[in-house]
Amino acid sequence: MEKKVLDIVWHWLKLIVVCSIFAVIVQAFILIPVEVSGKSMSPTLKENDFIVMENFSQIDRFDIIVFTSPDGNTYIKRVIGLPGDHVKYEKDQLYINNEKVEEPFLKDIKKHKNEYVFTTDLNSEDILGTKKIPKNQYFVLGDNRRLSKDSRSFGTISETSVLGKARVVYYPIFHSKIVK
Question: Structural domain of residue 64, as residue ranges?
Fold first, then answer.
């Protein structure tokens, strides 16, 4: 009887150790928690939200990424321009390679703030000094364009400075959602 109890305890102890190691590996290398600071991604991401980011999938237009900027700070922004793109805003409208592109994630923001221009006119060529975004570089903006330090101030983001893509807001619970 005593050996059976000891075997059960030993089995559970091994299971807990293996699961703990697996959880640490997943948390450290695959699904990484990050706290949002600042209001530049509001209302998509709010200050003090906790998100889970992953660093194994390809970056696409409008993905929200976490990266280290040239000034050494860590930021969370939305990818607007991909390598080879020409980005332009004119009268609050995004143009990629001279084609009009809708930004559905800004629809609710613009609805509530229609008293002023949300995204001031810009041309990536003026900011970067080159017609197209260079290879392995991204042009990023915050969703709250009027309060965001982004590619308009520090240029493009190198692919090697990207830490990961935001996937899920998990805290606070009432703000939990899949990030789009």
Answer: 36-178
Residue with tokens 């970056």: 59
Task: Please provide residue 99's backbone torsions phi and psi, each rounded to the nearest 5 degrees.
Answer: -110, 135
Domain count, the chain: 1
Active-site annotation holder among 40, 69, 124, 151 = 40
In the annotation, is 42 catalytic?
no
pLDDT in tens, the chain (180 residues): 677 777 777 778 777 877 666 666 655 555 677 778 888 898 889 999 999 888 888 999 999 999 998 778 899 999 999 999 999 999 888 999 999 999 888 876 655 555 555 788 888 988 899 999 999 999 999 998 888 899 998 999 999 999 999 998 988 888 888 888
Q: Has residue 90 been placed in a domain?
A: yes
Which residue stretches of 26-74 are H helix?
A: none
pTM exceeding the 0.85 threshold for the entire prediction: no
Residue 77 annotated to the active site: yes
